[in-house]
Amino acid sequence: MMLRIKRVPTVVSNYQKEEAEEGGCGRNCLRNCCLPGAKLPLYAFKKVNKISCDNGFVDHVDKEAPVAFLDSLLLGEWEDRLQRGLFRYDVTACETKVIPGEYGFIAQLNEGRHLKKRPTEFRVDKVLQPFDENKFNFTKVGQEEVLFQFEPSSDDEVRFLPSAPIDVENSPSVIAINVSPIEYGHVLLIPRILECLPQRIDRESFLLALYMAAEAGNPYFRLGYNSLGAFATINHLHFQAYHLAVPFPIEKAPARKIATTNSGVKISNIVNYPVRGLVFEGGKTLEDLSNVVSDSCICLQDNNIPYNVLISDSGRRIFLFPQCYAEKQALGEVSPELLDTQVNPAVWEISGHMVLKRKKDYEEASEENAWKLLAEVSLSEERLEEVKDLIFEAIACKIDEDKAVTPTLIEDSTQSIEVPLQAPTLLWSLPSRSARF
């Protein structure tokens, strides 16, 4: 049986259309009709691949960067697009509050994300689907929606070029705005955009996302990923990211260590949280951590298990959530009360940032209601154990193929409870956003 659900797709570009487009457009997109001679800003980062310490990864910048990546470049360019009217609504005007309770779930009333769109049918029983160039993809965005190219430096020095040619042969990765933002600075990281990769994590793309988190260097700037079947609606490889100056509830949830890989990556169970999942942290290098998580994601993809990923704490902690809400929805197993909220529990909602579309739900937001919704997202304990067995086997097999040390996980019987993320001092002043909390 083919499982499908109807939902309102998020409009991420001002050029997004539901029907297929044909031929050239003449509107400055990222396809062959408009690419010749096109230039975009380029930020070339220095790769981080040093041993981590108590305070995170060893400082990878030997001298002052030519531009502050997060506050001056990414958020500065995002603000520029806001002033130019490229967004569908002003997200900074959306009501937001921290819900009273132990976890501090965050509720936002965002009615603008849902207006004037008709429901579209999505297949939710197939995590891996081939790329379809006739459907909307990120090569169809306007070049004005792209903030800059994001590439590793060729000489291991951080560089910024205000205008650089687009290297079509090597398919640059880019950072673009989401015109239906959830929060301040909401952007999309699109790896190797011209290769038109489907929504499927690979080692290279996931490491790029960790580089972006490390480059931002601020724990309030997180990246997220949704697979197909876990509320990704565009089948073109992308991560999301934004800034929100409060800890996410998931970052405060305790975790119990269950294993350590040979490369020093610690794997823990999330406990006392409505969505069951895993936390990955540590490792001798950033690439060690990235490989373990990306191999885990590849395992889920290959076994047709929908999932969401949150990259937290400047790339030092990564949360992985296998989920089943869309499957339950397609099978008619979700209550009408929850369906009426029209909330699609993807990575941000699972992390505790509840994006609500109805004023009624916002006014009645409570920890109990948030917990009730997210509990429907979670796999059962028994099913999660089966998934963990698949992941551990995949990690071991990958280590063996790479001819590393003995391909085993070191089981840890101790119960290590993680300390909640401490709120550090903000690195810059935000325009009226932080005053709401």
Question: What can you tell me about this protein's structure?
Answer:
With 437 residues, the chain is an alpha+beta fold. It has a single domain, classed as ATP adenylyltransferase (HIT family, subunit A). It is 23% helix and 22% strand. It is built from 10 helices and 20 strands. It has helices spanning 69-83, 203-216, 249-252, 286-302, 325-330, 336-340, 347-351, 359-363, 367-375, 381-401, and strands at residues 4-7, 39-45, 52-53, 56-57, 96-98, 106-109, 120-123, 146-152, 159-165, 174-177, 187-190, 221-226, 239-243, 255-260, 265-270, 278-282, 307-312, 317-322, 353-356, 410-411. It has a 13-stranded mixed sheet. A 3-stranded mixed sheet has the order 5-6-19. It has a two-stranded antiparallel ribbon with strand order 1-7. Strand 5 and strand 6 form a beta hairpin. The longest helix is centred in the C-terminal third of the chain and has 21 residues, at 381-401. It is globular and about 55 Å long. Residues 19-23, 51-55, 402-408 and 413-437 have low confidence and may be disordered. Belongs to the GDPGP1 family. GO terms for molecular function: GDP-D-glucose phosphorylase activity; guanyl-nucleotide exchange factor activity; hydrolase activity; nucleotide binding. Keywords: Cytoplasm, Guanine-nucleotide releasing factor, Hydrolase, Nucleotide-binding, Nucleotidyltransferase, Transferase.
